[in-house]
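Section 5: illustrative case.
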């Protein structure tokens, strides 16, 4: 009983960490894409209204695109998981002994004896055979599948939160310091997203921070240069 509770706790914790990591990465996308758009426009014109309109349009379009993309992706994954569950239930109805043998073989491959694996499989399937098979074969919980709506809304809000950083920095800054203040705000925000994405993923924090900051700065520099060159050419 305690082992089952531990496994459930681990699965729940992993799901939470994955959700947090996805939220941080969504915020990072919002920061970089919106900052790149704002710097591109700012390279061409230094008008607060134009920059705000472009930045807001980028925020709304990006957030909706992220939400729809995540919804479609998770819906497809959920459909596949449900199909797997239905197939597993059918196999259990048609050939319960064969499925028990398959489960025992699964644990045999992990290094236990045939007798122990078979006894373990019998005990696991005594109360809820479908749960035992789903957990062993795909780490699935029939009653805790990922919600497409929740995933989509999470992506929408995390992208929006990230995009607000460069947008507000650009709009609220004095005209003569707009580029400088926005750059500082974006770099600080990228530092935080790099740190937390590495923390949740168990990766090297310094490398992650450097990676996201360099990538973000390059994106802003390139879009600013393009805006400046095209703005000069048109004017």
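Designed sequence:
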């Amino acid at each position: 009983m305690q082992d089952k509770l531990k496994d459930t706790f681990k699965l729940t914790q992993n799901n939470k960490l994955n959700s947090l990591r996805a939220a941080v990465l969504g915020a990072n996308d919002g920061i970089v894409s919106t900052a790149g758009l704002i710097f591109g426009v700012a390279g061409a014109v230094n008008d607060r209204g134009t920059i705000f309109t472009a930045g807001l349009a980028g925020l709304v379009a990006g957030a909706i695109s992220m939400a729809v993309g995540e919804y479609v992706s998770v819906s497809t994954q959920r459909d596949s998981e449900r199909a797997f569950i239905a197939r597993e239930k059918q196999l259990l109805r048609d050939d319960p002994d064969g499925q028990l043998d398959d489960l025992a073989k699964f644990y045999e491959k992990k290094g236990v004896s045939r007798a122990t694996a078979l006894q373990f499989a019998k005990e696991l399937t005594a109360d809820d055979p479908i749960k035992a098979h789903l957990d062993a074969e795909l780490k699935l919980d029939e009653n805790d599948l990922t919600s497409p709506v929740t995933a989509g809304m999470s992506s929408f809000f995390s992208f929006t939160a990230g995009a607000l950083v460069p947008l507000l920095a650009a709009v609220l800054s004095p005209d003569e310091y707009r580029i400088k203040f926005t750059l500082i705000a974006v770099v600080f925000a990228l530092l935080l997203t790099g740190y937390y994405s590495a923390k949740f993923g168990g990766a090297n924090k310094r490398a992650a921070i450097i990676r996201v900051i360099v990538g973000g700065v390059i994106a802003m520099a390139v879009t600013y240069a393009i805006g400046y060159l095209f703005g000069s050419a048109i004017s």
